[in-house]
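step: validate -> pass
step: tokenize input -> pass
step: predict -> running
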Amino acid sequence: MALTPGQMDNLLEELKGATSDQLLLINTHTADLFKMARRLEGRRKMTQLQVGTKVMLAGNMKPMYLRRQLGVVEEMRDTRVLVKLDEGPMGKFRNGKVLLSPASLVIRETVNP
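step: predict -> pass
step: emit ->
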């Protein structure tokens, strides 16, 4: 039995819909896993940080002028860290301080207890 042109077109549309649904589901789960991993990284880093720890802001920071800036942890808040920049005020951070997620920091030097 031979197929005629267009005979399977309706099945292709169903397959396309099912494939699109699966890709959407995979992308959603991937994004959720990425967010979870970032939160866990932040919690892990939070346990390593303390007031006085020298840090570098990560290379994926925005605004771009903050990338790789050095600073010192000035205050620990619930889930964020207040960092005083070594360079002082820059851009919109007129007081030279930035409130950041711990996951966006690279620890350069820890404080001895």
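step: describe -> The chain has one helix and five strands.
step: cleanup -> pass
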